[in-house]
Write a structure and sequence with these properties.
Layout lengths: L3 H17 L2
Length: 22
């Protein structure tokens, strides 16, 4: 089971990747 914290971290990481463009 994924924790809310992990999901939030993953979301932030994905956002960062999108901003960086890859």
């Amino acid at each position: 089971m994924r924790s809310a914290t992990f999901d939030s971290q993953l979301n932030a990481f994905h956002k960062n990747c999108t901003v960086k463009g890859g």
